[in-house]
Specification:
Blueprint (H helix, E strand, L loop, with lengths): L4 E8 L14 E2 L8 E5 L2 E5 L6 E5 L4 E7 L7 H5 L7 E8 L2 E8 L7 E8 L12 E9 L12 E4 L5 E5 L6 E6 L12 E4 L7 E9 L2 E8 L11 E7 L20 E4 L8 E9 L1
Parallel strand pairs: 2-6
Antiparallel strand pairs: 1-19, 3-4, 4-5, 5-6, 7-8, 8-9, 9-10, 11-12, 12-13, 13-14, 15-16, 16-17, 17-18
């Protein structure tokens, strides 16, 4: 597939929301869009983000946006049972394969790795379509404080060149992990985990997003801290690899497993904490 254009979207972690420069000309429901994921169906773009029920916004031109509701009217029963204290799902990731849209999302509480990644599916993203219905498929992956040095949040799904489905995920602790998914079920294919990025000293790394372009897999991650108002230090870093399982290196040749990463976007001027990016390839 020839890539014609791509768009990077990000969330600004501010206590008082400041719309980033690229969004100044946008209209409609453009505020409080944290940890976004974007996809296009027919001539319409859909964005999913952190929030109660997982809010959904749509646009036909990437400038005029409307809120069209949410994925869940009520939290699925399994969420508070697996993760006591959870308020709402975080960091959704939307993809299309096997004839359905697959929405992966995080279930966690701040500062804990007692977490899970859930899955909901739909035949269409158009609420006016008779087949529009979100079906929760339950948990895909779980992490526990007493047994796991990783955190089951911030999922991102990609099909590799051979048609194998993968999910990257992770936050702090042991860094960014990768696992195989079953293309038919969308659930975990086996128990093996690959480590693809880490910050052994600083620890602050999360929000992976992988794309494949011109023979390389590009892994985007967020360093440092969100959600601290004007003191937020979130920034977007990137590395690349010939294999989806790594090793990934930054522009200087330093491994992402040893804290490497090439800076893509950091705060400046009045803007603080850009991070948790998603990428849309259109064409």
């Amino acid at each position: 597939m020839r890539v014609r254009k791509s768009f990077l979207i990000w969330t600004i972690a501010l206590a008082m929301v400041v719309i980033p420069t690229a969004a100044i000309g946008q209209e409609g429901s453009v505020q409080y869009v944290h940890d976004p994921s974007i996809i296009k169906q027919a001539d319409t773009f859909y964005v999913f983000s952190t929030g109660h029920g997982i809010p959904i916004r749509r646009s036909t031109n990437l400038y005029d946006w409307e809120n069209i509701g949410s994925v869940f009217k009520k939290m699925p029963d399994w969420m508070p049972k697996l993760v006591p204290g959870v308020k709402f799902p975080w960091a959704p990731d939307i993809s299309f394969f096997n004839g359905r849209y697959h929405l992966y999302y995080s279930v966690s509480t701040f500062g804990s790795n007692k977490s899970a990644i859930g899955l909901a599916t739909n035949k269409t993203l158009d609420p006016q379509d008779k087949d529009y219905k979100w079906v929760d498929q339950g948990p895909v992956l779980q992490s526990q404080p007493d047994s796991d040095d990783w955190n089951a949040i911030d999922p991102n799904v990609i099909l590799d060149e051979k048609g194998q489905l993968w999910m990257s995920f992770g936050s702090f602790w042991g860094g960014i992990k990768l696992c195989r998914l079953n293309l038919e079920t969308g659930k975990r294919a086996d128990e093996k985990l690959f480590s693809i990025a880490s910050r052994p000293v600083a620890k602050a790394i999360e929000a992976p997003f992988i794309i494949h372009m011109k023979g390389f897999y590009y892994l985007f991650v967020s360093f440092d801290f969100c959600c601290r108002g004007a003191d937020s230090t979130y920034k977007i870093m990137v590395g690349r690899s010939k294999k989806i399982t790594g090793p990934y290196y930054d522009r200087a040749g330093w491994p992402l497993m040893k804290g490497g990463g090439t800076l893509l976007l950091a705060g400046y001027g009045n803007y603080r904490g850009p991070g948790h990016n998603a990428i849309l390839i259109d064409g």
